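User: hey, got a sec? need Condensation domain-containing protein folded
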Amino acid sequence: MGVVFNYLGKTTDQSTLTLHGQAPWTMRPDLVQGLPVCDESECRPQLLEVLAYQQDDTVQFDLLYCPQVMPSATITALTQELQQVLHGMLDEYAHHEETLYWAPSDFPLLDVTWDDLDAIGHELAQQGISPASVEDLYPMLPTQQGLLTATAKDPSQYTVQSAFTVQGISDPDQLQMAFRRVVAQHTILRTRFLLHWTRPGVTGLQVVLRSNDIEWHLVDDWAALSAQSEDEYMQQNYA
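Assistant: Yep! Here you go:
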């Protein structure tokens, strides 16, 4: 492996960590002449190892390399380019304060820019959804687009309502807790859709929320309702 990025020490595979004295790289004669022979602290299994970690209020970068293999001038140029890229990222954050919770790289399945994230955040805010409550974003599937388009034209399309009897549960709170756990485990049950959000190659978004409260209605005495009252209740609450 030529370059290893070990951010916050998360690289644990021993094959990618620094192993002194086992560098597979060939020394350059023009560099060996002006420098002492590599000792064990300089020989590295990677051509360049970049270590990044947080220190106080800053992010510290350590670049480890063998000076007899890679010229120090090259490392200096790479360091300067890295600084420019990081400063550019910070400038982008400063100009997009509304979506500080997000970055385009957070959504690898969605090819978006900072401006796209601003537009998405604004549209979600109109629905009372904050960026902090969003777990993931990705494009809608063609099948989903077709179903939701048909439902938008005719709400009765692809809308299924069911009523069934559950036995053996005496505590409604336990049933409600079970439903909440199911919702927490399955992202599709916490997904909302932005049908009209379009970009080249993308029509509609799936917005996965970190949590999704269930609107829970409890009827104390269902048996006391007449058949007509049952139908009216279902129409008012589930249609």
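Quick note: Residues 7-22 have pLDDT under 50 and may be disordered. Let me know if you need anything else on Condensation domain-containing protein.
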